[in-house]
Design brief:
Order of helices and strands of chain B: EEEHEHEHEHEEEEHEH
CATH superfamily of the largest domain in chain B: HUPs
Strand order of the largest sheet of chain B: 9-8-7-10-6-1-4-5-11
Distance between the termini of chain A: 91 Å
Largest sheet of chain A: 4 strands, parallel
Strand order of the largest sheet of chain A: 2-1-3-4
Low-confidence stretches of chain B: none
Helix content of chain B: 25-40%
Number of domains of chain B: 2
Mean pLDDT of chain A: 94
Number of domains of chain A: 3
Radius of gyration of chain A: 31 Å
Number of helices of chain B: 6
CATH class of the largest domain in chain B: Alpha Beta
CATH topology of the largest domain in chain B: Rossmann fold
Shape of chain A: elongated
Low-confidence stretches of chain A: 339-348
Largest interface: A-B, 26 and 16 residues
Mean pLDDT of chain B: 92
Number of helices of chain A: 28
Radius of gyration of chain B: 23 Å
Number of strands of chain A: 8
Shape of chain B: globular
Structural class of chain A: mainly alpha
Largest sheet of chain B: 9 strands, mixed
Helix content of chain A: 40-55%
CATH architecture of the largest domain in chain B: 3-Layer(aba) Sandwich
Number of strands of chain B: 11
Strand content of chain A: under 5%
Oligomer: heterodimer
Strand content of chain B: 15-25%
Amino acid sequence: MNALVMAILLLAGWGYFAYSARRRWRLMMVGTPDSRWDQPAVRIQRTLRYAIAQLRMRRYPIAGFAHMLVFAGFGVLLLRTLILWGRGFDESFDFWFFGPDHTLGRVYSFLKDVFAALVILGTCVFIYYRAIKKLKRMTLSTEGLVILAIILLMMFADIFYDGANIALDHRAAYGTSSAAVSFVAYEPAGSVAAMTVQSLSDGALSCIKHLGFWTHATLVLVFLNLLPYSKHFHVITAIPNVYAQSIHPPGRLPPLEDIEGMLEREETLGIKKIDQFSWKTILDFYTCTECGRCSDHCPATKTGKKLSPKHFTLDLRNFLYKHETELVSAAAASKNGNGRNDSDAPADEGEQPEFQKDLVDGVIAPEVLWACTSCRACETECPVFITYVDKIVDMRRYLVQERGEFPNELQTAFRGLESGGNPWGFPADDRAQWSEGLNVKTLAEHPEAEALFWIGCAPAYDERAKKVTRATAQLLQKAGVDFAILGNEEQCTGDPARRAGNEYLFQTLAQANVETLNGYGVAKKKIITTCPHCFNTLRNEYPDFDGHYEVVHHTTFLAELVAQGKLKPTNRIDKKVAYHDSCYLGRYNEIYDAPREALRSIPGLTVLEPAETRDRGMCCGAGGAQMFKEEESGDSRVNDERTKQLLDTSPDAISTACPFCMRMITDGLAGQDKEDLPQLDIAELLLESTIESNS
Amino acid sequence: MRILTIVKQVPDSNATIKVKPDESGIDSAGLKLVPDPFDEFGIELAVQLREKRGDVEEIVALTVGPDKAAEALRVALAMGADKGMHLNDGAFDLTNELLLASIVAQAIKRDEAGFDLLLCGKYNIDLDSGAFGPALAEYLDIPHVGAVTGLDVSEDGKSFEARRRIEGAEEVVECGLPALLTIEKGLVEPRYPSLPNLMKAKKKPVDVLTSAELQTDESLQVATQFQSVAPPAPKPDCKFVEGEPEDMVKELVRLLREEAKVV
């Protein structure tokens, strides 16, 4: 082999790659700082589970398995590539231990052949999905097929390089007239290739050997240089992206720190421009493989809304790439000047270059942002841990707080939250009306109570949800739980305001609530709540505001009371009940089993699972402040689609564990002319099953 | 064109109103106060006129009320008004609308540049009274159009065409400026002031006027006299009759006859 050619090839290949990598690095550094290096043990563990073992790939079994084959094959073949590059300089190069005479070499040679074959198999699966089945979720670009062709070609080149080598060696050792090449166990693919080519002339064999060698050695470098400019960049960025994922609870949105100070410094409240995203967000953009698993499960995409998480990422990435030069030079200029260009001088608004313009004016339409139900189906699906809800909320923050632009109905919710502490603007004084006749005490009346029953707005004011609240309170009383409520001192946790982008209003409510809760020493009590949104915010978001509480959802708590024998469901309820997972219980807080256990504790009751269930359970359509606005226009409504899935199980009743889900499914049932099908909260079913046995 | 928009601070429509034990007024402790939603239509209209037209030089927001009423002014400034006038004096009896109108008229006359368009809500939701707007127009001797639901201001800014709903029809009024309009719900949807604008509103100028500058006409003290305020009588509880239709009818007839004694 020609050492000079190899040297030039390596220098050119790696040189250009270094140039590309530097470009991508500098573009990434345009993003704002974001520390992702704490808790390395957790991060390493997650990297091993999700980047190396690729646990999330299993969610799509066939494609996932094919991907694992290719990934593992790449890992194994990396060494082979290094050996081949070395052979450009010294034909017998084998890293000293990996020659055919070493056991290690034979083991590796075997593995390499097996994995080369598996990579071919995996690649064929991918080609089938792309070229024949044409899966809708994927972006069916030529680029994808070109890369797959390169991979196939690399594998075959390598195998036939081995084959020609074996055939030539055989001929050198035994002469042309000798017996045919036989199968070699430690070179399975190579020896089979040798058998197919052994009848060729020396010249032809030598040609195949050289062709195979140079094809493989060159294609690896071509592949390497395509990566930074294609969706295959994930080959390099996926592992760091998984490592740098957020290790906070998914239910916690990062707060805007010191809003008043931000206003004084004229900083943007939220994300307006592309360079206000963090470097990690840019790494997310680099890592997106366009596989479409996110959009495949997005309730907005599925019902024909303008939002598709995959395209959200791609649109931002394309915009970022388009303005790479300007962004990098602007970042360099502001670094040398006076800090980041964060303020918006109104004087030059008209002359702002495109890359500095509002993302909502041209890159991401407001209808895209407002279609998100924050259900996290996309984030749960993404194999490389790209996040969406935080980015969408960040852009909503800008729209709401800076531009004052949002769906009109949300204004009613914001004003209601400001004036009455609830999104409907009901009188704050009526907050405890649901408890009439139940003899429920407030913490002011009974400060030593062991538990606080946090009610929440819908459970306090919504006529249907009030029945659930009453049922829960009655169950707690039956089980002898020493609890109290906040009464009129409770306000909305702020979840709808926060998800709608009104961070300032959320923080106002959060601070007020934390003050009340800490005033009663609730940090030493247990908080029980029936609303998964309250549950999530109290548990995962209030710690940022100095509120550290033990929070438990009523389904978990009731299941525990049953397990402890404090509640005895003895009345039979002979019903088949379809259970609908709430996103904020399930995907956000991984509570799937407790509600089902509570249901199964009722004699006679069978739990039915809809086709999409547990962490794939489809959203009801209410989350992310959708409850308080009109659904964006599309082909169908999210709650209708979900209701159909639930009805497909032919249930006698539907059970929910969230007041918002309950409302949405009620509307969905009406849409299907099934108003009469009972829809009950787990607490109501449990109460029905315990009602006379204990009294 | 200069626009004056008048805004009163009133209790939030969702707040629970408590009456003082001596019936001398409503208990304001802990009461959530907001700019009157109908007055907000006026502010929004002024801001929209500026956004649409090139000739709106200044929008001034005016309020009458105690120190706390400055909050209502701040909302108006955050929505887009340029400066504020705060008429703040214990002698400005907020329940006497004629007196208020005469005081506001004096304040307006002190402004040398003068206003082309005066805007306020068709009534205020606190006392459900709508005398203030027309009365102010009278004191200023300018025309007034009430409960406007549609508005086209002429290009030269000298006249306008307003629409208003009347019994079973819509009335179209043409009128010259200056004039006072009171605004009906539906003409515009007030914006939600953004945070940066709320911050900027803090820095906008507000002139405070008291009884030192504005005379309270004693003859008007009797125009409206406040007597007392009492909570409405609680609604009697509904009684639900349950059971089979036949039994329900029997029970209903029995109740009407024996308890309600109406049949």
